[in-house]
Amino acid sequence: MIVMKFGGTSVQDAAAINSAAEIVLGRVDRAPVVVVSAMARVTEALLRVAAVAKERRVDEVLAGINELRERHLTTARELLGRTNEPSLETVEREVQSQFAELEDLARSVATLGELTARSQDAIVSFGERLSSVIVAEAFRSRGIPAELADSRGFIITDDRFTRAAPDMQETTRRTREVLEAIIKSGRVPVAQGFIGSTAEGVTTTIGRGGSDYSAALIGAALGAEAIEIWTDVDGLMTADPRVVPGARRIRVISFEEASELSYFGAKVLHPSTVLPAVERRIPVHIYNTLNPSCEGTLIVAEPRPSSNVIRSIAFKRGVTIVNVSSTRMLLAFGFLRTIFEVFDRHQTSVDVVTTSEVSVSMTLDNTDRLEAIKLDLSGIGEVTVEREKAIVCVVGDNLKFTPGVAARLFQAIESTNVNMISQGASEINLTFVIDESDVDRVVRRLHDEFFAEVDAEVFA
Ligand code: ADP
Ligand code: ASP
Ligand code: MG
Questions:
Q1: What global pTM score does this model have?
Q2: Which domain holds residue 164?
Q3: Among the atoms of ligand 1, which is closest to the Cα of residue 270?
Q4: I need a labelling partner for 98 at 20 to 30 A (CA). Which of 66, 85, 152, 318 fits?
C-alpha cells in the first residue's frame, strides 16, 4: 500500500480536487491511503476566526465563518452538482452541520472572551474535517471506492494543544486496526492530516504544516511501500522557487539532507515527516498535483553522490536572536544548562546556537513567551534581543568532504552583515543568520554561486 498526501493547494478548489481524483484513480491498484489538508488558506482563516472570537468581535467571527461556508459549499456543488446521486445533498448536510458546530464553538469563545489552546485546536480542526468530507465524496463520484476515516480515531497524541506529539505505540496500533480493515475491504481511506485526539478523545493538532507528518505516521504504521507528498511544486528544489525563479528540481536527496532543509525553512516538507519514514526506510516522493507526470523528488536513505557541493538552500524569516552575556558566569559549570532550562520551561525551541567567551546567542521563531524568557534570563546575564532576522542554511552531504565551502560562501555574499554562523553536528549543513531584508538577495546570490552548473544525475 501507499500513502498519498494532498496539501492545501492540491485540494483548494473543484479543479484541484478533480486532478487529485485523477491521480488517485491511477493508483487504486496500489491500495492507497489518502491524507488531505484543509483547502488552501483555510487554516489561516480559522485561526483568524479564533483570534477575533477571543476579542469578542462577533460580527467578524460570523463574517469569517460565512465566507468559509460559501467556499466549501461552492466547491462541493461544483464537484457534485452534475451527478444524479444524492451525494451532493449528503455532503451539503454534513458541511452545514460542521459549520453549525464551528459557529457554536466560536460563539462560546466570544462569550467568554477567552481562547484556550484546546479551543483553538477544536476550531482549526474544521479545516481538515471539511475538506476530507468533500474530497471523499468527490472521489466516490469519480469511481474511487473512498471511505472517510476520522484521524482522531487513530492519531493519538498528548495534550500539548497546537503542537501535540503523537503516542507512537497507540497511534500505530489504532492506525493498523482502523485503516487495515478499510483497505482489506478494497476501499480507499480518506483521512485528515494535521489533526488527532488525546487518549480521552479531545481534538488536537500536531503543528502547522503537520499533514505531511500525519502521512508519515500512517505510512510508518502500515509499513507503506512509499509515501507520496502531492503539492504545488515539481519537487524539492534547490531553493524556494518563489524567491529563486531559476531553482532546479532535485531528483534525489537523502533523508538527512531533506530533514535539515525542512527544519530550516523549506516549507515543502514538514520537519518531522522524514523521521518515521527513515526509521522504516520508506521512500518519500514529492510530486506536483498540477503536473503529475513530472517524476518529482525522491527522498532515500543513502545519499547519492553529486558533483555539486550543496544540494539546496533553505531559509526561515521572522527569526529573533536572544543574546545572553555574562563575564562572570560563562565558563562556570551549568551556565548553558541554566539558560536552556529557561527555554525549556517556556516550551520554546531554539534553532541556532553560538557561543563565545562572554556570550551565548540563540535564535527563536516562536516569540510568544519572549518577555517571560527575557525576565528569567536577566537573572543569568545581560539580555539583548535582535528582531527581523532570518536563518539561511545550505545543505549537502558533500559539505562533509569538501574543504573551503564556508570561504566560498561568505566570499559570495561579502557585503552582507552576518550575525551568527554555525555548522550542524551532522556536518551536512552550514547555517547563518542575517537581516531579514537581505534574504532574497543572499539566497539568489548563493544560488548563482553554487548552482551555475548542475550535476544532471541529481538535478533536473
Ligand atoms: P502544501 O500545502 O502542499 O503542504 P506548502 O505550501 O506547505 O504546500 O509547501 C509547498 C511550497 O513550499 C511551495 O509552493 C514552495 O513555495 C515552498 N518551498 C520552500 N522551499 C522550497 C524548496 N526548496 N523546494 C520546493 N518548494 C519549496
Ligand atoms: N492545514 C494545516 C496547516 O495549514 C496542516 C497542513 O496543511 O499541513 O498548517
Ligand atoms: Mg505543507
A1: 0.92
A2: 2-232
A3: 7
A4: 85
Q: pLDDT tens across 317-328, in order?
A: 999 999 999 877
Distance (angstroms) between ligand 2 centre and the Cα of 435 equals 27
9 Cα–ligand 1 center, Å: 10
Residue 348 and residue 223 share a domain: no
**Contact residues for 161 (Cβ-Cβ < 8 A; gap 6+):** 116, 117, 118, 120, 121, 204, 205
What residues sit around ligand 3, an ion, with C-beta below 5 angstroms?
7, 209
Place of cell 465563518: 65
**Is 238 within the bounds of a domain?**
no
Distance CA 216, CA 199 (A): 20
Q: Which of 240, 299, 310, 391 to mutate to test the pocket of ligand 1 (most atoms within 8 A of CB)?
A: 240
Give every CB contact of residue 303 below 8 A, 6+ residues apart in sequence. Answer: 253, 254, 256, 257, 397
CA angle 342, 423, 251 (to 5 degrees): 115
Residue where the block lists cell 562572570: 328
Q: Among 163, 198, 232, identify where a domain stops.
A: 232
Would you say the CB of residue 37 lies under 6 angstroms from ligand 1? yes
Q: Is the CB of 20 under 6 A from ligand 1?
A: no
pLDDT at 363 over 90: yes
What is the CATH number for 76?
Answer: 3.40.1160.10
